[in-house]
Amino acid sequence: MYDTLFLWLPAEWINESGYLDRVPTLLSNIKQTYNSTTEQIYFTGGYEGLNLSVSTSGISIKGSICKSYLKDNFKTLTRQDTERAFESLQDKMSLPILNAKVRRIDFSQSYSVSQLPESYYPLLGDCKGYQRLKQPKSLYYQNGSKTLLFYNKIEEGKSKKLAIPSIWTDKHILRYELRYTKRISRQFKMEVVKASDLYQESFYMDLVDRYIIEYQNIYKNNQIIDNMNLNRINTPKDFIYQMALIKIKELGMEATFESVEQLKAKDQFKHKEYYSRLKADIKRLCKNDKLTQQNPLITELDKKINQVKCYCR
Predict the structure, then answer these.
(1) How far is CA 131 from CA 83, 139, 146, in A?
(2) 209 and 193 in one domain?
């Protein structure tokens, strides 16, 4: 399930390997640049589908370990594959890749779904601690150290002019990624996260749990069952609730919450906490089990993502 990784090998760990003279000769499309700020010469280029930067400070390795080892990232890199990928890279480069510091982790899986991936985005609401950013073909949740990303894997492949696997012909493929982009060691409560840690079962299964929990923490928008139903009106509040839901259904959940954000941007309310309270009230209304129900597409996606743990060992 690993995709993009950023690894770092400090010079003091590899000086005796003669890496400065040897590694640049392995690179394709090599470029030499000088950074006046650090006063260092950098050699950058490609190796085994990865991007390397070599300097007197050390070696950075960036790219999709899945694509490097399996030759495309349409496939899923298992825990065992991850171990073999690192060992292969270590043997080929004659460098202690297994000890490299991990500076970014992308953990992902592709799902064959019943509808276009874009159909699921409006059903995925906000998530505490993240900023929700919708794009035409993708949906992001971002904060300072992590990103959750949902996107159309086939459209991404086509945009990069890649050959789509025949097994995906006429199918809809939704990709969900969890990206750790900063402060990796702090987030995993470790002194340092090394490449060899990534394929240890305890670390890997913890990451699988985090992947599922991050998805579960996203608020899922229910669908409003129908328009005005007099049989469900027993109090004046029931009438008001149904009228409100009719308008929310007309606008859509995304537009409804966007209206709250617009009020916030205008500093419309006297107290800042009113915006979060209003959102909470809307969410409670839209989770009314008599007037709303879980969308079948969310039921489908919940099942597929929760099943990841059954097949990932």
Answers:
(1) 34, 11, 11
(2) yes
User: Which residues have C-beta within 8 Å of that of residue 151, sequence separation ≥ 6?
Assistant: 117, 137, 138, 139, 174, 175, 177
Per the structure, the complete domain to which residue 21 belongs is given by 1-99
pTM to 2 decimal places: 0.91
Shared domain for 196 and 312, answered yes or no, is yes
Residue with tokens 């760990």: 13
Burial 160-175, CB ≥16 within 10 A → b, else e: eeeeeeeeeeeebbbb
Task: Please count the residues of the chain.
Answer: 313
Residue 175 and residue 121 in one domain? yes
Number of domains within the chain: 3
Instruction: Round to whole Å and give the CA distance between 6 and 105.
Output: 7
Q: Is there a single domain that holds both residue 243 and residue 278?
A: yes
Domain boundary among 42, 72, 99: 99
pLDDT tens, residue order, the chain (313 aa): 999 999 999 999 999 899 999 999 999 999 999 988 888 899 999 999 999 999 999 999 999 999 999 998 888 889 999 999 999 999 999 999 999 999 999 999 999 999 999 999 999 999 999 999 998 889 999 999 999 999 999 999 999 888 899 999 999 999 999 999 999 999 999 999 999 999 999 999 999 999 999 999 999 999 887 777 777 788 888 888 888 888 988 888 888 989 999 999 999 999 999 999 999 999 998 888 878 899 999 999 999 999 998 876 6
Q: Which of 99, 128, 150 is the last residue before a domain boundary?
A: 99
